[in-house]
Amino acid sequence: MSPSALTPVFVGLRTGLHMLLFGLLALVAARALLTPEPNTAVVLGAVALFGATYALGIVAGSRAGAEPGTRVVPVGRFEPGARVERRRLLWLTALTLEWMLLLWLSREAAYLVFPLFFVVLHLLGRRAGMLAVAAMTAVAVIGLGVHEGWSVAGVIGPCIGAGVAVLIGLGYAALAKEAREREALMRELLETQAHLVATEREAGTLAERARLAREIHDTVAQGLASIQMLLHAAERADPEGPGVGHVRLARETASADLAETRRFIRELSPPDLDGADLEQALRRLAEATTAAHGLRVDVRASAHPLPMPVQTALLRIAQGALANVTQHAGARRATITLDETDAGLVFTIADDGQGFDADAASRSARPSPDSFGLVATRDRVQQLGGTLAVASTAGRGTTLTVTLPREVAA
Questions:
Q1: Rounded CA gap, 144 and 150, in Å?
Q2: Element (H, E) at 227
Q3: What is the four-CA torsion angle of 126, 128, 129, 132, rounded to 10 degrees?
Q4: What pLDDT digit, counting tens, does each position of 257-299 carry?
Q5: Listed residue (210, 220, 218) closest to 261, CA to CA
Q6: Are 113 and 20 in contact (CB under 8 A)?
């Protein structure tokens, strides 16, 4: 069994079961020694054989459970990799036959049926296990009747024991199932937590880089630009002055430092967003698309300033969508709309092209190269916690709508 918070409970239950069985087995042996009979030696030999078989099964089961990749498959479900479970079936068959031999030799062996009920229920599963419990109960009742004569107690006792064992076995199975589900949920939560930490770290890094870029642009870069302009004005005012060489050198140094500072700003800012907000970047993208492909792109933006990760994601979505439009849609016009509604932030890209079968693209298990951009867009939207809707009709264009929660756009 895989480690979990409930493993100590399962270990305690199994240990108690083993102790109960060996205790009852010792009772059978003690009864045979205290009341010697002609078959006492046979009873002791059967006790030893039963105990050795049971101990062998415990050791083999522990080793099999410790092997990586070992699965516990109920007998009767003949699945690949269930070889160990079939060996357990043979072990259970041998154990049952030895118990029946003991029961024939000694009436105290009837008590061993109670711990055997749990073994049968664990190995055979619910249906087959309950049938086996019923059969073993009948054997125990017959054994007691043969040894002591038929009585109500001899019938009710094994039946009550079987009922209690079935209820405890079902509770154990339910507890084990709950433990497995809880462990799977914990793994999923840990993976989700790790993903969220990575996402937040990336978003924090982008936001901090953008903040540094803005600060450097507003302070150092502006100051160097002002110094350069002043030095240039001083150089033109007195081009033949005694200190013009130093002024020229200072201006050239300020110009070089300004260029280096702007390079830092470009490296710190997300691509295509350095020194501009999302609306300006979208308009630059529209102008570049029109100039390169002749596609007229209109931009309509009315949302408030957005966090840098959201701006970067929406810009990437627009770039991918316009690339698909220019390559596949055959459109003449496209519109990019960014608006803030009660539902959240709505980002729409629509074109008047030839359209495509959006349902077929979404049902495809392996996206084609043409639809990979749509898959990437959907993944990017899901990372932001939003939804993506694609509406397309043959000959009537395509509309791609991204809806983000208000808290994401805040």
A1: 7
A2: helix 222-237
A3: 150
A4: 777 777 776 666 655 565 557 888 888 888 888 887 888 999 9
A5: 220
A6: no
CA 152 – CA 145 distance, rounded (Å): 10
Q: How far apart are CA 13 and CA 268, in angstroms?
A: 60
Candidates 353, 275, 271; CA nearest to 316 is 271
Alpha-carbon span 21 to 18, nearest angstrom: 5
304, 340 contact by CB (below 8 A): yes
pLDDT digits (tens, 9 = 90+) for 95-116: 888 888 888 888 888 888 888 8
The 10s digit of each residue's pLDDT in 135-166 is: 888 888 888 787 777 778 778 877 887 788 78
In angstroms, the CA 187 to CA 18 distance is 32
Q: Return d(Cα 183, Cα 189) in angstroms, integer.
A: 10
More confidently predicted of 381 and 275: 381
- Exposure pattern of 272-297 as b/e (b: 16+ CB <10 Å)? bbbeeebbebbbebbeebeeeeebeb
Q: Are the C-beta atoms of 251 and 232 separated by less than 8 Å?
A: yes
d(CA 373, CA 151) in angstroms, rounded, equals 79
Q: Are 233 and 254 in contact (CB under 8 A)?
A: no
Residue 335 banded pLDDT, cuts 50, 70, 90: very high
pLDDT: which is higher, 320 or 209: 320
What is the token pair recorded at 215?
């600060």
Q: What's the Cα-to-Cα distance from 398 to each of 66, 212, 252, 329, 390, rounded to whole Å?
A: 56, 39, 52, 8, 7
Which residue, 225, 296, 298, is CA-closest to 260?
225
Region 298-310: what's the mean pLDDT?
Answer: 82
C-alpha–C-alpha distance, residues 34 and 40, integer Å: 10
Q: Quote the longest CA-to-CA distance of the chain.
A: 135
73 pLDDT band, cuts 50/70/90, is: very low
How many Cα atoms occupy the beta-carbon half-sphere of 194 within 13 Å? 5
Q: Which two tokens stand for residue 201?
A: 């770290």
